[in-house]
Amino acid sequence: MAVLHIYTKNGKIYCTAKEPFLGKEKPLPNLPAFSELFSSGVTCVVFKLPSLLKTRNFKLICFALLSFVLRKYYRQKIPKLLDSFLNKQKEKDLFFIGGSVGAELIKFHYAKKNDVVVEGVETINLIAKSNKALNRLISQVKPKEVKKRIFIVGLFSPELLRYLRKKYPLANIEVRYFDILRPSRIKEFTWIKNFSLSNDIKISVYDQSTSSKFGIPYAMNKVNTSKLINFLNVKKKYDVCFLAAYSLDREKSLRPLLSALKKANLNVKILLVDYPYSELEDFKVDREIVSYENYLRLMSESRAVIDLWRLAPGEGYSFRISEALTLNSKIITNRTCILNEPFYDASRMFVFSEGNEINPDAIKHFLISPMKPVDKSIFSLGTN
Q: What highest taxon heads this organism's lineage (predicted)?
């Protein structure tokens, strides 16, 4: 059985397939035949009709509409598929994460060998959005008297939380937010917070502002330091690296810094996924996604890692902070609030302000200066 995902990107049409709730999407060379929708080989189809309509591709639009008529549109199928899937997992711990990049990170730092990481585009929608079909399923759920851990990232579906608590009354459920809270999500977030606090569910956020505003525990993004030992003591190949997904705001923040690094004649590694060009400020740009382990390897091979705030200056710290300092790499950042952290030290972090000129000589001095050891327990999740 397969979940099909049809989507458009940069004007092109893509179709992928994956096992329901598990594994990564694999690209298909062509759209499957219409007859496949009548077979058990296709479990459900994920698509956004408005974006498909813009393609004016008659065959593609008809394929999507037929899947809906056959009740294989993912919103119709996913709830019952989920219930059947979870029944097979018995006492295994569950990690609901969705996105493939995030799933790799969770697998590496949080999950144990036999744990189940529930991922994929169908899972993203299950976690992030309300689902009436799932809501109807709750009344039919039979509680299972098994103890397990359930970890959910970025939850904005009250129905999923109610469903999981009813199905697993003995489970240790934890809801974690690794990203900024958008105003459009406050209603669902508030409900989830209240339900969690009254139903023995642990909840935490990665930023101080959301913590203080809603009275929810704050915890910075931490890593499994014992697993990162394998990436230590690597020969430094680069002076500085920047590893991230492309956004226009990131490019604007990055350009003045790269200009200073160029003047300092430094060896810079840039991995900017989906950046439209092959160079940025005369530095070569790699644009393809790498595995999380290769990402860590690139970080450990660099004397310093660039970390820029993404949406707001006061947002929570990315995993790069914990990753870099655990890997004995320095940090170059525009997060001025980090100056107040107990782990801040001028030998570890070069902090610059937006709009101020960056001194190339100051960066060179920072890179060649000894790095004061840091208490790595600050960034540690413990061991799995």
A: Bacteria
Mean pLDDT, to the nearest integer, of 51-61? Answer: 93
Residue owning tokens 């397939």: 17
* Residues, the chain: 384
Q: Residue 266: what are its φ and ψ, rounded to 5°? A: -100, 155
Tokens coding 322? 């914990």
Domain boundaries, position 153: 76-214
Tokens at 182, concatenated: 């958008």
Task: Note whether residue 146 is domain-resident.
Answer: yes
CA atoms of 310 and 265, how far apart (whole Å)? 27
Other beta carbons less than 10 A from residue 186's beta carbon: 13
Say if residue 103's pLDDT is above 90. no
Helices (H), 9-120: 49-55, 58-69, 74-87, 100-109
Give the separation between CA 320 and CA 305, rounded to whole angstroms.
8
Query: In degrees, to the nearest 5, what angle opens at C-alpha 342 toward C-alphas 336 and 344?
Result: 50
Q: How far apart are CA 40 and CA 137, in angstroms?
A: 22
219 occurs within a structural domain: no
Q: How confident is the model at residue 9 (pLDDT cuts 50, 70, 90)?
A: confident
The mean of the pLDDT values for the chain is: 92
End-to-end CA distance of the chain: 32
pTM of the model: 0.89
Measure the CA–CA gap between 346 and 334, rounded to whole angstroms.
14
CA angle 208, 332, 228 (to 5 degrees): 80
Identify the H or E element spanning 271.
strand 268-273
Residues 209, 84 share a domain: yes
Residue 231 near residue 296 (C-beta atoms within 8 A): yes
Other C-beta atoms lying within 10 Å of the C-beta of residue 234: 17
Q: What is the pLDDT of residues 126-161, one digit of tens each?
A: 898 888 888 888 989 999 999 999 999 999 999 999
Give which of 265, 275, 202 is closest to 239, Cα–Cα: 265
Kindly state whether residues 127 and 250 are assigned to the same domain. Answer: no
Same domain, 102 and 62: no
Is 384 a residue whose pLDDT tops 60? no
Contact predicate 203/175, CB 8 Å: yes
d(CA 358, CA 350): 10
> Minimal CA–CA distance to 359: which of 281, 260, 276, 272?
260
* End residue of a domain, out of 32, 53, 72: 72
